[in-house]
Amino acid sequence: MPPPTAKPHGSTTAATSFFSAIKPPPSTPPPPLYTILFLLLLVTLGFYFLHHHSPTTTAAADFLTPPQQTPLRFREQFLSLSTNATVSAYLHHLTLRPHLAGTPASADTAEFVHSHFRRLNLDPRRAAYRVLLSYPIRSSLTARFPNGTAVALSLAEEGAKKTGETEEGRNGAVVRPYHAYSPSGAAHAEVVYVNTGSEEDYRQLAALGVRVKGRVVLARKGGELSRGGVVRVAEREGAAAVLLFVGGGGGVERGTVMNGMGDPLSPGWAAAAERLGLEEAEASGRFPRIPSLPLSFEDADVILRSLGGQTAPPGWVGPGIVAQRVGPGPTVVNLTYQGEKKEVTIQNVFAVIKGLEEPDRYVVMGNHRDAWTYGAVDPNSGTAALLDIARRFALLQRNGWRPRRTIVLSSWDGEEFGMVGSTEWVEQNLVNLGAKAVAYLNVDCAVQGPGFNAAATPQLDELLFEVTKKVKDPDFVGATIYDKWAAMNQATSIERLSGAFSDFAPFLQHGGIPSVDLFYGRAEYPVYHTAFDSYEWMVKHADPLFHRHVTIAEIWGLIALHLADDSIIPFNYVSYAQQLSKYTDELSNLLDGSTISLHPLVSAIEQFASAAKEAENEVKQLREGDGRDGLTALKQRALNDRLMLTERGFLDADGIQSRHWFKHLIYGPHGDYKSKLDFFPGIADAIHELSVSTTMGRSGQEAAIQHEVWRAARAIQRAAYALRGHIFVP
């Protein structure tokens, strides 16, 4: 049954349905007195609404809606609608075939999600973009040993064949292991083992007299560097090619090595008619210049055991790794890779639930849909949860629920290549999102193992705590998520969103929109980006009964319901001010002994803390009022706008130096992977330059750090002014 269309408050239909519950059964004629009283009450109601009903007041809605149909009751109903079998069925369907972005199988998943939204009458939409993605054509790797023998390494996932998950896949094709945006190329050279491929690792090799120039480096993933970061460091060191493996055995980890976010041919604007050429510096500079390939642990082990040369430094042994020597050689490898970069169409899919009172305010929920292979964990555990939330919202609509603000459920495409789908959409809608988006709620890998985890901008901390106190822990009887989360961390630990590793990045770090990221599991799971990331693995290892999927859906959905339905947006900037003060203390310890003054930061944070306290008091006063008069509604709207727009104050038009697309000066990726700061990215980069620069004296570099301190302070001041709503400093 489709959701009923919204009826005006005070309509005859609404009044009749309300009073039908208290009328006597039809088989018993109503007593005359009852009839007279009923008609009198009905006429009175009609007269009242004819003369007093106003779209800016909620008194009529509160009167007509049955007592049980309040936002609280709808949240309780939302929790009561859980069914793990439904989530399981969604995931099973989504993972029948591999669905790499830009392929027909990926388009099929877009149609599946769109059809699901359409069947629920949730106003489905699409946004398609023509973007540059990267695919493999052929690859090979042969190792030649000192005794004259040679082995052609398979570059495949042999273990997958033993479980029936062949290289051709089930009803589709598993893409061969590769690194997206790696250049085509070949290398015939000795191998050097470089541990995790960091600058420090290369310095240790240099101290041993080992050079990598012109050689193929073998690195294990597991350090602080990203996949692309490992390749770029190797390129700077003069390596001819990179082989990258993950310790511990299992499959082969695919992934991107592109630098930056979104479509590389439309940097900073949505993919449309204007496109950069592949050879233009702004586009080509995002790709490595040397080829790289992912390798299974088993194939890497064959090479590692054959190396001679210098003894490996202490600490260069990971799980199962028996590397005794680092080379160079005497083993020689012959590596070839041919790939293609081509423009393809990707599709974002949406469901829109229009708000009743504030339709121009958006709560955006998002998960990406594309996967390197079957994607049971990454990302379709999150997709299944999103589809289940859509089902629950549709059922709430049938019970009369209409959100106060508009909810947008988003299914992104092209995330695995660099958050392409979400970035293009944010860039296309940046002005509207900047003026109207309340928050972005992200779930990527919903379930990858035990242990709830959350990351968020600090104004959402209090809401996260409140919601997790309402949701039962699926792994501990009688406990809530909050109970076990607090016990596991000795305190409730909410991480921050400084990295650019999922679809929250364009919303927060480019658009300044408060964001949340939720998932189950603490560490990288063993089938990450491999052909083993299947429905079968999920059932056997991560969530056999799909209880954790249900839990993520409940937390995710409740956060959205609060943000969409609460009369006052549940943001608490006192938490943000406390976090900023903590960051400044850490920065002070790091800069102890320098001439850099943090007074601008301290002063700005004091202003922000004062504004946050004033806003908190204003929220309390409005909540204590009756909330039914038009003036109160206007005050709420004005306060909500300030609460919503405050995060935008942390943006700077010039962005982070050398990475201008990232505009947020509190949270964003920094250039130094060894940095002790996961906040103030501009300051962190300037501090890094102080330690490595050979062209600028210490005084000049400290002046650069001081400038970044001032920039961050000005951003915090802007946020304080936005929270107060003043255009003149009080």
Brief account:
With 730 residues, this protein is of the alpha/beta class. The protein is 41% helix and 16% strand. Strands 1, 2, 4, 5, 6, 8, 9, 10, 11, 12, 13 and 14 form a twelve-stranded mixed sheet that branches. Strands 3-7 form a two-stranded parallel ribbon.
Keywords, separated by commas or semicolons:
alpha/beta, twelve-stranded mixed sheet, 16% strand, metal-binding, membrane, TFR-like_dimer_dom_sf
Structure report:
This protein is an alpha/beta fold and 730 residues long. The chain is 41% helix and 16% strand. The protein contains 24 helices and 14 strands. The strands form 2 sheets. Strands 1, 2, 4, 5, 6, 8, 9, 10, 11, 12, 13 and 14 form a 12-stranded mixed sheet that branches. A two-stranded parallel sheet has the order 3-7. α5 packs across α12, α12 crosses α19 and α21 runs parallel beside α24. Residues 1-67 and 161-171 have low confidence and may be disordered. Belongs to the peptidase M28 family. M28B subfamily. Its EC number is 3.4.17.21.
Write the layout of secondary structure elements.
Layout: H1 12-20, H2 32-52, H3 59-64, H4 71-80, H5 84-94, H6 104-119, E1 124-144, E2 150-153, H7 158-162, E3 179-180, E4 185-193, H8 199-207, E5 216-221, H9 227-236, E6 241-246, E7 255-256, H10 281-284, E8 292-295, H11 297-306, E9 332-353, E10 358-368, H12 380-398, E11 405-412, H13 420-428, H14 430-436, E12 437-447, E13 452-456, H15 461-468, H16 481-489, H17 504-510, E14 515-520, H18 535-542, H19 547-565, H20 573-590, H21 599-624, H22 630-645, H23 681-692, H24 698-724
Parallel strand pairs: 3-7, 4-5, 5-6, 6-8, 10-11, 10-12, 12-14
Antiparallel strand pairs: 1-2, 1-9, 4-9, 9-11, 13-14
